[in-house]
Write a structure and sequence with these properties.
This protein is mostly helical. Helices cover about 65% and strands about 10% of the residues. The strands form 2 sheets. It has a 3-stranded antiparallel β-sheet with strand order 1-3-2. Strands 4-6-5 form a 3-stranded antiparallel β-sheet. β2 (about 90-95) and β3 form a beta hairpin. The protein is globular, with a radius of gyration of 21 Å.
């Protein structure tokens, strides 16, 4: 059996300028929204995202544009649309100028669902921003507007909608996922490796799940997958043999050294007009939101 090398303590001491708190906060925000929304609408996550995007695009679009905007396969979009059409939430019509192209149009029933969804999004936004205080909350809103303008998302419908923070989170998450996918990592895998760099003696999986705001079952699966790639090592706790301790390996740390600067660069590109001071404010706000989220989260 090939022996894996744990990262040395002096290597662990290296601090990246990037933080995974931004990604963690976004992931938890989106999950909170999706879980709460499922209690009120009998549609899948993909179907909801399509409805929301159609609403943002003025109530009508075609499969090609939807697939491009969401970074999904056309077959995935088409499959989701079948269920939405059967539920009476969308309908299809041929374009007047090109009969070969089919437009997908929101129905009044879909608009009613989305209206309720916006109320949920607004409630969650207020909950997430509440612990920041007046100054940091204003700074976060400034960051959001900077992202909207920098990435040409600044149409009136976007800025005036209660959903704009949710849409920014979706937009940012997709950028992170695309960046990590090229390195063969999921968002949770990257955040897990990033978290491990601060624990020179390892950390228990349950505590790790809590730190990542991830379910214990999901964290265990990811740990096993990363261990099979020899990016982390698992061992039994010397005090409690039922508990598992995980450590980042030299290979895992080397991968982190490659990926972390790319994520850091991506964070810089998200809001290019922000000053260094405001970037520090953003990271502070993300840390506070994560701390607040952990108070009510059970892994």
């Amino acid at each position: 059996m090939h022996k894996v090398m744990l990262a040395q303590p002096q290597d662990i001491a290296l601090k990246f300028p990037v933080t995974s708190d931004c990604i963690t906060s976004i992931a938890h925000w989106l999950r909170s929204y999706k879980l709460r929304y499922r209690q009120h609408a009998n549609i899948t996550e993909t179907q909801y995202i399509i409805l929301d995007l159609l609403d943002w695009m003025g109530g009508s679009s075609n499969v090609n544009k939807l697939a491009t905007c969401l970074g999904m396969q056309k077959s995935t979009i088409s499959s989701a649309l079948i269920g939405l059409e059967l539920s009476g939430l969308v309908m299809r019509r041929q374009e007047d100028t090109d009969r070969r192209r089919i437009n997908v149009i929101l129905t009044n029933s879909a608009l009613d669902i989305l209206k309720h969804a916006k109320n949920i999004a607004e409630d969650i936004m207020q909950e997430e921003l509440k612990p920041l205080g007046k100054y940091l909350k204003a700074a976060m809103l400034d960051v959001a507007e900077n992202i909207v303008v920098s990435h040409k998302l600044d149409n009136d419908k976007f800025l005036k909608s209660d959903m704009y923070f949710y849409r920014i989170c979706l937009f940012c998450e997709q950028l992170f996922l695309n960046c990590l996918k090229s390195e063969g990592l999921s968002s949770l895998e990257f955040r897990l490796l990033f978290e491990l760099k601060d624990y020179s003696r390892g950390i228990g999986i349950k505590e790790l799940a809590y730190r990542l705001l991830a379910y214990l079952s999901d964290t265990t699966i990811v740990c096993n997958a990363l261990a099979s790639r020899q990016l982390l090592a698992c061992s039994k706790n010397s005090i409690d043999r039922r508990a598992t301790i995980v450590d980042i390996t030299s290979d895992g740390y080397a991968l982190l050294q490659t990926v972390a600067p790319k994520i850091d660069s991506l964070l810089m590109q998200l809001a290019p007009n922000l000053s260094k001071y405001n970037r520090q404010i953003l990271l502070k706000a993300a840390r506070l939101m994560c701390a607040n989220q952990r108070r009510s989260f059970l892994p």
